Task: structure prediction
Amino acid sequence: MSYPPPPGGYQNFGQPPPGQYPPQGQYPPPQQGQYPPQQHQQQPPYGPPAAPYGQQQPYPPQGPYGQQQLYPLPGQYGQHNYPPQPPPPLGQPSHSPYPQHQQPYPPPTHSPYPQQQQPFAAPPPMGQYPPQGQYPAPNQGQYPPQQHHQQPPYGAPHAVPTLASPGYDPNQVAHLDASGAADQLRKAMKGFGTDESTLIRILAHMPPQEIPVVKQTYQQRHHRSLESDIQTECSGYFEFALLAILRGPLQQDVWCLNNALKGAGTKEALLDDVLICRSNADMRAIKIAYEQTYRRSLESEVKADLSSKTERMYSMILSASRQEESAPVHPQSVDADVMELHRATEAKTGAEQLTVCSILTNRSDGQIRAIAQAYEHKYRRSLETVIKSDFAGHMEDALVRMVRSGADKAMRDAIALEECMSGPGTKDERLVTRVVAIHWDRAHAGQVKGAYKHRYRKELISRIRGETRGDYERILVAMME
Result:
């Protein structure tokens, strides 16, 4: 019996159809001749991320369950018509307050998966492929034996590996003449006094690919280290923020990890900020850079600092084996994860902690988002609430961050910033670190401001101004503007 081929034939089978994944290269557009556009995964303008399952989700949020809805529906942040409006019908895009050209996720017009005429593993039409076993055996030395990988079922979409974020690939270096910026920076710090305004103007919005070029040009033209001059001419948290920028995102992560692990005790929040829900490409880059910088493996350092099940959870995180964001979200798999999470938590006395860790550390953000929505739909209780009731301490904080990362990264970061400023005293070092990490992605920074206003009914920049002073205030505000 022959089977009709799927639309478009088999040659592109397994590739995602056009338009279904976010457009690449939306990090600040490079000037002509600077550096090639890099693929960079980012969220759509605020509201929260696009709904899971593409257009085939079986459990779309139907509005709040009493007061249990933890995350607002897509498209509700940044709007001024409160209370939020009910969601649009399935298949129709939510309203967004941003211009259409800023939408990185165009509304799908059909299923995000290749249209199937028959189940996976269906044989090709008669005569299209040679009979099995009749390919000629390769001659000695003709080509090397192929590595055996687990291949997805016939016709299944392939997960495309996420590229490293801007600043995490050594090849991502801008090609530009940085002599003007280098000379202005030197002039701002030369002689009596320091021109802090020039330092802020040049460094606050510098793309990560340009930072190595500016530092190298500064050294070549003035025979001085830019970081050393900053340390000499600046002080306090203003100096701390400028040095964090000059390290660039990768080396700043490495510096933060060393700061979190050195000495007595572990700075658990800093460890979580850097490592949880990172792409596999970024995680591998961080591990390589850490070992090159400190001549010790990050895995061994974490293992020595943590203990018991928390250490095992971080071993899963550091394995860099998460599902890629391009991996499809299968409703059957989501259902299985939801039931397994319920069985390991609410359905018994005493949570099976490693079961929960194994699921959440392995799933992509999109899959976690689907799991969280399906869990609340099925059990009328948010997954974050379940974790908070069944876990404690560092493991609770880490798992909650995973759920928030999948549900809504911008709201996760808005909450994290408020945690630095709430209560007696400002946690300045943590505030600087988080603002610097957020500011590398300008679109995401805008979403964080929208999420903050939605949750706390105030402007994030006004809140930062109220907690900081002087040049320290000005550099943080400049990074978030």
